[in-house]
Amino acid sequence: MLTGALLILAPLFLGFAIALTNRRLMTVIHYTVETLVYFILGLLGLGLGQMQGLLDQLGAMATQVTSLVLVLLVANVAGLWLFHRWQPMSVEAGSDTARPGYRRLFLAGLKPLLAVLAGVLLGYFLFPQLPMVEDVATWALMLLLFLIGLQLRNAGLSLRKLLMNRQGLGIALVLVASSLLAGLALVPWLEMPWHQALALASGFGWYSLSGIVIGDALGPAWGGVAFLNDVLREIIALALIPLIIGTRPAVAIGYGGATAMDFTLPVIRSSGGLTCVPVAIASGFLLSFLSPVLMGVFLSFG
């Protein structure tokens, strides 16, 4: 398991160590990352579809996903609310006239679910014995992490400035701490070792990573649970941000987790104004970096 954890982390750090200046190459990397995400999600679904007794386990998986989502939601919101009370942040709510199409964003949030569902149907009906699915998924994930490391390094962001953004850093650390506390609280309910529960709680909304990493380590059923937990975080965040960012910006920005620097950023900007953007980017960047590190570390205990 320790070797697997190192395999997860090595490509990310390798990509982050390489500086690029070619804009055309960065554009190619962007589209390659997008394609790889859906390919990996399809493989995750394929593994689920090939799982013996899938239909018998759906009820248990639904219960596990529901408990994860609810406990993490309560813990994250409580922690971020306390952080807001300690470090209040002002926003320019409603300052932007151009607002993103929320319907389009919600539909985009459903695309990962459709990719996994397509994989499940293929695995269940057409390819129940297709070999090497896990190996292909692992190598695809390593390539994805390498490319994401390149993106993080070459996004025009100063790591020093991100780490010095007190609001963003505080939000990220509070989300990590509250998520890990929620993971520990769920140990008896999920009936799994503490380090595995903490790995489950460390996805922070990065569903393409958590689904494959957890699935590779704990089996396709838990991989499906991790994926659904994190994709539901993203969808809930899209609904939550416009409602509370005016009064509780730390909660609105933080609950989205790693997505605050990409998928939920347009909603954060339009609902909270430009002052929220550097905070969201700092928080999302740090959580994107911490998620694979923490999952790798916790899974290495097995």
From TrEMBL:
<protein>
    <submittedName>
        <fullName>Uncharacterized membrane protein YbjE, DUF340 family</fullName>
    </submittedName>
</protein>
<feature type="transmembrane region" description="Helical">
    <location>
        <begin position="235"/>
        <end position="257"/>
    </location>
</feature>
<feature type="transmembrane region" description="Helical">
    <location>
        <begin position="61"/>
        <end position="84"/>
    </location>
</feature>
<dbReference type="GO" id="GO:0015661">
    <property type="term" value="F:L-lysine efflux transmembrane transporter activity"/>
</dbReference>
<feature type="transmembrane region" description="Helical">
    <location>
        <begin position="6"/>
        <end position="23"/>
    </location>
</feature>
<dbReference type="InterPro" id="IPR005642">
    <property type="entry name" value="LysO"/>
</dbReference>
<dbReference type="Pfam" id="PF03956">
    <property type="entry name" value="Lys_export"/>
</dbReference>
<feature type="transmembrane region" description="Helical">
    <location>
        <begin position="105"/>
        <end position="127"/>
    </location>
</feature>
<feature type="transmembrane region" description="Helical">
    <location>
        <begin position="207"/>
        <end position="228"/>
    </location>
</feature>
<feature type="transmembrane region" description="Helical">
    <location>
        <begin position="277"/>
        <end position="301"/>
    </location>
</feature>
<feature type="transmembrane region" description="Helical">
    <location>
        <begin position="168"/>
        <end position="187"/>
    </location>
</feature>
<keyword id="KW-0472">Membrane</keyword>
<dbReference type="GO" id="GO:0005886">
    <property type="term" value="C:plasma membrane"/>
</dbReference>
<keyword id="KW-1133">Transmembrane helix</keyword>
<keyword id="KW-0812">Transmembrane</keyword>
<feature type="transmembrane region" description="Helical">
    <location>
        <begin position="35"/>
        <end position="55"/>
    </location>
</feature>
<feature type="transmembrane region" description="Helical">
    <location>
        <begin position="139"/>
        <end position="156"/>
    </location>
</feature>
